[in-house]
Amino acid sequence: MDKFLITGGRPLHGRIVVSGAKNAALPALAASLLTDQRVILRNIPRVRDLSTMRSLLEDLGVDSSVTHETHGNRVEIEARQLLNPVAPYELVKQMRASVLVLGPLVARFGKARVSLPGGCAIGVRPINLHLKGLEKLGASIKFDHGYVDVKADGLKGTDFYFDTISVTGTENLMMAATLAEGVTVLENAAREPEVQDLANLLNKMGADIEGAGTPRIRIRGRSKLQGAEHSIIPDRIEAGTFLAAGAITAGELVVDRCIPEHLTSVLADLEMCGVKVVGGPGGPQTLTVKAGSTLQALDVTTQEYPGFPTDMQAQFMTLMTQAEGSSVITETIFENRFMHALELARMGADITVNGRRAVVRGPTLLSGAKIQASDLRASASLVLAGLAAEGDTIIDRVYHIDRGYERIEEKLTQVGARIVRISESD
Ligand code: EPU
Predict the structure, then answer these.
(1) 359, 261: one domain
(2) Is 273 a catalytic residue?
(3) Fewer CB within 10 Å: N-end or C-end of the chain?
């Protein structure tokens, strides 16, 4: 298992480039199953979850090819036929987003057999709403030896209300509804930019979707979809992580190729903590974070978009260890997403966790230590802690970070960080 060795205390300076959004690229790959024509996706991040999704498509009998481009990968997929409608346990347990093939498979081929994902490091994360929605669209659902078998003889448009807002749930049902007969209305739908990006791709493929990005999405079904070419939006969470890295090291970092509107809540909270982030230089897709006055503590509650993202909670907690005062961080989306707190405490942070609430008292001097990553965003928060800490930090199990951050150690090295990957073979 690879590790990172980080020698902290160096301010970051320079330009860092944001990759394509993992959580937009994953449903985009799944959406290619909705047509027998060629779908070309660009700005696909070179991260492990995307390789896992390609392996899953391969298991289903669909080939894809990859070309390196200056910004991300170009992936071409032509799902002419389906050999095996199964998302096996081995892949689903590696990556829950595998369930995104469910909607497209049922809509186009009338069947899917997907391993139930089970619990996950950050919470229970059931898929009951994905299944309820598919059932409402006319599919039959059967549980069998840890798998769910979903069958349909043509889906029919329906109205579906999400009693909990779900990002991949919205994506799964939106994809399924593009090939259903008649109109589907999804109420209390997720509004994340990744949902909007998927709708943009589907509309290019000939779907008729209105309202993506609002809580009410209306989809008029089509009998067939066609091929399309689409470039994935930048990763707002990677961009937010880099802004936090600039702030915590008191550097001056230009975060390039991001969409500032997707970061509204993060930018507002950074500003309230005293972090200076300005637009530019050189275009609307660039932000610069500058070392400013002392960081001030701020209370933050995670919410669905456009609220403060749960995927930035861990990174924000690390930042708060360096702020004056007490910060109360409330996690409302996942019930077990504070595992980084204990590792941060091992580095000297003063954090008390009580259920879904964590109180961070700062500022505290962080000192380098041997720590362990537990999930993707937790790993990012530990990298930030390592950058800010005195001395050397060794982070174990960085395979978690490789799932969703493209070459993070190389990107950070280019802006002055001392971070090296230690491979098992070294
Ligand atoms: N939920 C249900 N039933 C369902 C679906 C969800 O109760 O059928 C609950 C979940 O247990 C959770 C809440 O609804 O408490 C929200 O979960 P959601 O379904 O929105 O999460 P997700 O779609 O599984 C995506 C991202 C996550 C991100 C969350 C929240 C992808 C591939 N994953 O997950 O990303 O944290 O939305 O924004 O889009 C990450 O990138 O590190 C990551 C975990």
Answers:
(1) yes
(2) no
(3) C
